[in-house]
What does this fold into?
Amino acid sequence: MMVLDCDLLLGIIECNKRGLVQSAKWLSELNHGLSDVSLKHTGKSFENLHSGIASEEYDDYVLAKSYFDVREYDRSAYFTRNCSSTVPRFLHMYATYMSKEKKHLDNMSDHSIVNSNSHVKDFSELLATLRVDHGQKKLDGYCLWLYGVILKKLDLNQMAVQIYVDAINAEPTMWGSWLELAPLVTDKNMLQNLKLPNHWMKQIFIGYTYIELFLNDEGIKIFEHLQTTGFGKCIFIPTQLAIALAQETRKRERRREHQVNGCRSHNLPYVPE
It folds into this structure.
């Protein structure tokens, strides 16, 4: 549990530094749910608060992050445009992505349709940068996640799957990568053949993906086990259990309705023309 605690704290810090507020929120909720478990915080996670930010880029990063947090994405991207250390570099690309997305949505009429061609044009420069950096193995787990997001948006799902797997292996506590990967998994066989790290978060992902695939019995078993190993008060776990149980209830009701309708059809008298 000590390793889990350090992983969570480090994940929260790293996601917050990069503006990944939803993943930070999810990890924070998971961490809060473990509050009854006796854990001793170590200083290592907190020492990472400023890691990945070069000292000469720190002022630019802080300003850019403040702009990002209030959704002024162009300003955020501008102030990190010359940064090369990992965190400001990610923030620059993420702010660029968010700016393109915001403008794309703002320019849409009520009846317009989002299509891949317009997204290709919007993201062409950023996609080219990510592709080059990926070829040169310069992308960390967070940048790999962003690369996967754009590939997925362009319906390049096969490439996106591999990029998300790479992202997860690089940064297992980046929940966003697991979450984006799940709907791209088409069946149980594909899930079992993904080359994922032997990390405690893998079981949460497998349970979640089973439920996404409507393999509710398998998902329920995993989440019930997680409840007995300290995760019982983590919001995500009972929520997934509730979803799986509701899906199973609806499945049984449809099956019963089908059987009743079948019996009624079978008992109808034959009426000649």
